[in-house]
Every structure is written in C-alpha cells, then in structure tokens.
Amino acid sequence: MDLDVIIVGGGAAGLFCARTAGLRGRKVVVLEHNPRLGNKILISGGGRCNFTNVGATAVNYVTSGSPNFVKSALARYTPAEFLALVERHGIQWHEKKLGQLFCDQSSKQILQLLEDECAEAEVQIRLNCRIHSVQRHEAPEGTPGVPTWTLQTSLGEFRSSSLVMASGGLSFPKLGTTPLGYDVARQFGLRVVEPRPGLVPLTWTSADLELFGALSGLAVDSTVTLPGDAPRFRENVLFTHRGLSGPAILQISSHRRPDESIRINLIPDSPALPLLESERRSGRDLKAILRGRLPERLATAWIQRHGTSRPLAQVAQRDLEAMARALESWEVQPAGDEGYAKAEVTLGGVDTAELSSKTLESRKVPRLHFIGEVVDVTGWLGGYNFQWAWSSGHAAGSAL
What we know:
Blueprint: E1 2-8, H1 12-23, E2 28-31, H2 39-43, E3 50-53, E4 61-62, H3 71-76, H4 79-88, E5 93-95, E6 100-103, H5 108-120, E7 124-126, E8 131-137, E9 148-153, E10 156-165, H6 180-187, E11 192-198, E12 202-203, H7 206-212, E13 219-225, E14 233-239, E15 243-245, H8 247-253, E16 262-265, H9 272-278, H10 286-290, H11 296-306, H12 317-328, E17 330-332, E18 336-337, E19 345-350, E20 368-370, E21 378-379, H13 384-399
Parallel strand pairs: 1-2, 1-10, 2-7, 10-20
Antiparallel strand pairs: 3-6, 4-21, 5-6, 8-9, 9-10, 11-19, 12-15, 12-18, 13-14, 13-16, 14-15, 16-17
C-alpha cells in the first residue's frame, strides 16, 4: 500500500497526528498492534479521561535535555484549542482541580472524538497489525523523489514517504506496550535516554515497611520535595501496604533520581518549631499536639521513629529543633518504585536533541518523526501528558 504517511501507534498522539495530516489532504494509515485503539485513553482519569490541563506550560514537563523543547509545540496547539474541539463534539466536561479537565461521562467520548476526526480526514486504521521490520530506501541517485519507508507487517507491506512513531512508552504493560519506538530510533542512529517508570508509587525499605506498612489507606495533605533545587508538590500523600503513593508522591517520582531520598512536610500550614515551642508550657506531649493535624496512627508511628512520648517541657531545645525539622522535612529513603505496572507514564525516550522542536522530525533522518510518550518528554500528573500528545501530534501532522 503506497501512502503519504504511516503512523505506528493508535493512541492519543498517533490518532491526533493522523487526523491533522489527513485534514491536510495526506493519505494516512495508522497501524495499531492491539485489537482496539486508545487503550490508555480508555482507562485514564478513572474512566473519565483527564484530557488536558488549562495551565500547561513548559515548566510542567520533565526532560533530560532542553527544558524549552516543548514550548513550540505547546504554543502552536494549546489546551484551549483542544477544549474547543471537545466542545464542538458536544462532550460535557468539568474542571476537577488545578486546571485539570475531565469528561463528565466517559473516556470513551475522547476516543470517539478522535475516531470521528480520523474518519472525517479519511485516515485508514489497521488493528492487530504487528510490525516485523522497518526499512528506509533512498531515491535512486540522480532521480527526483524522496526516500521511501517500507514496513513489513502481519497485515502485509506498507510503503510511504513519511513515518511517524507514536508507539508510546512502557507503562501499563498489560495494555500491550512495546519498546518498538525506541528500537526504531536506535536502528536509525538516534540516541534514546534510558526509559524508566514515571508518575509511579514508591516502595518502603524493610525497616520502614515494618513501622509504616500498617498505615495503608491513610492520606495526609503534605508538601513533598527533593534535596536541592527541585519542584515542590502539595497534594495528598497516600500510605499503601508497600510504600507511598498519592498525587504528591507520583509528581515527585518523575523528578527523583534512583536512590535519592524525598522530603515530606507533614504540617505544611504550621511552622513546626514555633508550634512546638508555644506548647512547651502546656504539659502536653507531641502526640497530643499533633492530634488533629495528623491521623493518630500516623502520628504514633512517626513519633516512634522521630519523636518522644515525654511532655515537651522535658525535651531539650536541640531535640525540640530536631523534631521540628523532621516534621517539616521528614526524609524518606525509598527502596525503589512499583515499576511500569503501576507507572502512569514512561520517563526517558528519544532524546529531544535528536528532534526538531517545531516538527518532531529527526535531525539525522528526514521524514522520520517521533511524538507523544516515546519522546523524552514527561508531563506532570493532571492532564499535561495528554496535552503533549495533542500538541506533538499536531506539530508533526502539520509538517507531513
């Protein structure tokens, strides 16, 4: 089959790129190895799809390379533009918090939007299509023309003048994720930043598990950060039977280097030392002071590790200061994380230095584009990764 564009991957980025290129008159096919499109779309946002974030800017993305890489694509296709498309399709939505937009009804509506847009653009869709090989053939020397991409697949041979890899990352392996995009990048000499889980729960060491594992199910409003100059995230921290999760932990996990500790402020609204000093004359102990500020089971476990059961009037100033520091900056050294099975996204991917920020085309290999999660761009939790899918798909689709 001779085409203008082959897009490998029928997820958010691939479908939006296909729609964009198809509406420009390009002959496009999307090859998806799963039996249905958009598996990650369907499970996202608890089944309601956090389809964008109205405040998305470059500061909300993590890359190993240039932090400015995402600016061009985000500026050329904005959250407001995707929201207008959602409204044009009659999808009811609501803002949950912090600019996060969700469907009122179902994630299926976003997938249907993309399928309808692709149908209007006369995009061809091929499901259950396994890619066996990817080859690039230069035009014969001295003749006009462009290189030809040839893909051998379980559904036969496909040929095109442009190839877009929108094959995603490695998170949620039960949905059929593969490393195909990374393999193709390496095949053609592009550097790949080593992938690892992102937006992922962290696990306890054995010592911490023994003390804090029984707190599973507790959630506490906290500020979480890392040593040094790192973003701070204030949202819930959730205690699990294996470690820590919740929005604040998922956020910081994408910034955390392996083996790096995290810092948790358990009482973000109250400077700890003045609070403890003001209570010194009351005759109360630390547990009584923390009651109402922390769940009692958490306060008990935390005091066992960092505090004392004595009345604060009997505590030396230096010890009081140490407890205050620990409340404001509880240092937790995770054993690791829960891996791709529980990760929302994949960190790493095709190095942004290898790609044009305007078109997502390889700087080394003309007419080869990488978009979405396969690129070394990871958004914060809260709709930012979907916006990157729409923006990067639009950038590539507009250039094909």
